[in-house]
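Protein fold
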Amino acid sequence: MKLDAQQEAILKGEKGDVMAKVMETMVRYGELFGADSMVPITSRYNHLVTSFGLKALGPVYDLMEKLIDAGCLSQQKFTADPRPLDKKVPSSFIQNIVFQHFMYSKQEYYENQLQQLGLLEKDAFTCTCYMDEVGNTPRQGEVLSWSESSAVVYANSVLGARCNRNSGIIDLMGAVVGYVPYFGLLTDEGRKADWVVEIKTTKKPEAQLLGSAIGMKVMEDVPYIVGLDKWLGTLDDDAKTYLKDFGAATASNGAVGLYHVEGITPEAVSQGRALVREDAKVYVVDDAELKRIYDGYPVIWKNKDARPKLCFMGCPHMSLNQLVSWTEKVEQSLKEAGNAKVVIPTVFTAAPAVLRKFKETDYAGRLEKTGIIVSDICPLMYMNNPLSTSMPVITSSNKLRTYTSARYYTDDEILQQITKGGNV
């Protein structure tokens, strides 16, 4: 790898042994992927994926202490993924013992480390850091050092920023030294599409289901999606919310770090089919294909006919747009069913900043009356508890379905179950 004079000086220890090791880490990381140079991070803020004080992460805490003691702090303020715990979310006495003593016993200690390293705000914990309310929204072309897969794919695709699918801690190393290796999705060539995906459905496809289908098909490749603009129209708040959930499914059910939607996403608007490689493969998604994908999801509950004990919505975190629209949908469906409150304990999760904005509206009180709980928790971290894994939990998040025992249903099916009960 060719380093400039400043990078070479850091590697040789001009800024201390610890910073030299950070630079060496990033150089070695880049060389593994064939990078021949380093480029500066240009975004205003960074984002870290590791947000949970898991007892088993002792080496991480030791590393953090070494960075702090050496004064090797993040050059950017940063946000972090959601916290793993929230007292408002239903949990049993034994579940709480496991959470607090066997799993996330180092949470307070770790959050203190994050604040010393450069956490943007005390409650800057969310997987949707790019929301306007949160303020960590990169601009087109900016170079990032992020790891959270759902945030990386959104930043690359919807915002046109540039970031590879890094691993946890690598995101922090980049922020500390101020550079990331130049390869993959940071390059023009790496952002070209390997697939053309043709959407031929008779109605607007479910975001999480379509993302799952495309992710499982193209894996880590870049898809260029044709025909989705018919259903999205323009890149307004509704479309951004759709693409948030769609992208998270492509990234978790596959390993997509970037997608282009013809007529919608910024690079597809400016470059069009020039983004598609000459040897690109074609994948057609119609109603039958989506049904095939849906029917293929395994149900890993011990009792497949069990009544759901909990519903999680918001993985990734819900937008303000979603909180408002879901409040209206839940109210209407409860009215139709003749019920005052939801019949399954239900948690809507969103960023703390989004929830503060939501509470300024009358929708917050209306949603509370339905019995739904709002939280800034990470549903995935909640489900990592072995006692949570054994619970019949439902969700419309394909990310949560992929990583946990939660069972996937479409939004309409979730709405029916939480407001009217019964099988779908």
The chain has a mean pLDDT of 97. The two ends are 56 Å apart (CA to CA).
